[in-house]
Write a structure and sequence with these properties.
Layout (H helix, E strand, L loop, with lengths): L1 E9 L3 E8 L4 E4 L5 E5 L5 E5 L2 H7 L3 E6 L2 E7 L3 E8 L5 E3 L4 E5 L2 E7 L2 H7 L3 E7 L1 E8 L2 E5 L6 E4 L3 E5 L3 E5 L4 H5 L4 E5 L3 E5 L1 H12 L3 H9 L3 H4 L2
Antiparallel strand pairs: 1-2, 2-7, 3-6, 3-10, 4-7, 5-6, 8-13, 9-12, 9-16, 10-13, 11-12, 14-19, 15-18, 16-19, 17-18
Length: 234
């Protein structure tokens, strides 16, 4: 499966991602309504009802199954990108099902019920664990980053940014830094363990853009407090 992204990209209108499937290649698309162009035999696309778990987790009824040879283009909303990840047998990453856009044949999904503590931390009862070999496509906000966990040295990651983490990871919901720092940050996951954690940067990109667009409290104060501040301070 060959995938090209960002061929038609605009910050306000989103991105188009094109999938090219070879003969008999099969990919399952969980957001088929995003397909805006298709080239191939009409029989190459077969939509069907999701299973009950899929309907509940995605809050959608239909998935699209595409069989090669074919080529199709999916439209992604502004601020979102598609991250393709190659999986092999033995992967122990737990994913949030809402991020899953597509997956190839050879991949099967298993439901992992979280511990009561992790349910409280993640506000979710189950995660998805993939088995088999193939590719999955994750719909994320902004760039996807990854860091390797350490068994004893903790890694702090904004809880809203985490996409996937190893099943063996130890999680604590916390903040860090001095009093001022801890009072002005979102809750973070304090993680230790082995393996790689994936997280997205889109939420922070939007926040920085808002800060840069804002003239700031100090500038507003100086403009109002100083004589002729409104004239000299723009």
């Amino acid at each position: 499966m060959n995938i090209t992204g960002g061929e038609h990209q605009d910050s306000s209108s989103g991105t188009a991602v094109t999938f090219s499937l070879e003969d008999r290649e099969l990919v399952y698309v969980l957001h088929p309504q995003q397909i805006i162009a298709y080239r191939g035999p009409s029989s190459g696309r077969s939509d069907k009802l999701m299973n009950i778990k899929g309907i509940y987790r995605k809050r959608k009824l239909i998935q699209g199954d595409f069989t090669g040879p074919c080529r199709f283009t999916a439209a992604l909303p502004p601020g979102f990108s598609l991250k393709m990840i190659t999986l092999e047998d033995g992967s122990d990453l737990l994913y949030d099902f809402k991020h899953l856009f597509c997956y190839s044949s050879g991949i099967c999904m298993k439901t992992k019920v979280l511990s009561m503590k992790n349910m409280l931390f993640t506000r979710d009862a189950v995660k998805i664990k993939f088995a088999g070999s193939g590719q999955i496509g994750l719909l994320t906000q902004g760039v996807v980053c990854q860091e390797v966990l350490h068994p004893t040295e903790p890694l702090y990651i904004d809880a809203r940014s985490v996409i996937a983490y190893p099943e063996n990871a130890s999680l604590e919901l916390t903040v860090y830094g001095n009093n001022l720092a801890s009072q002005h940050m979102n809750y973070h996951f304090k993680m230790t363990g082995r393996g790689t954690v994936l997280f997205q940067a889109g939420e922070y990109n939007r926040r920085l853009a808002q800060d840069l667009d804002d003239e700031g409290v100090i500038k507003r104060f100086l403009r109002e407090a100083l004589p002729f501040g409104g004239v000299f301070i723009k």
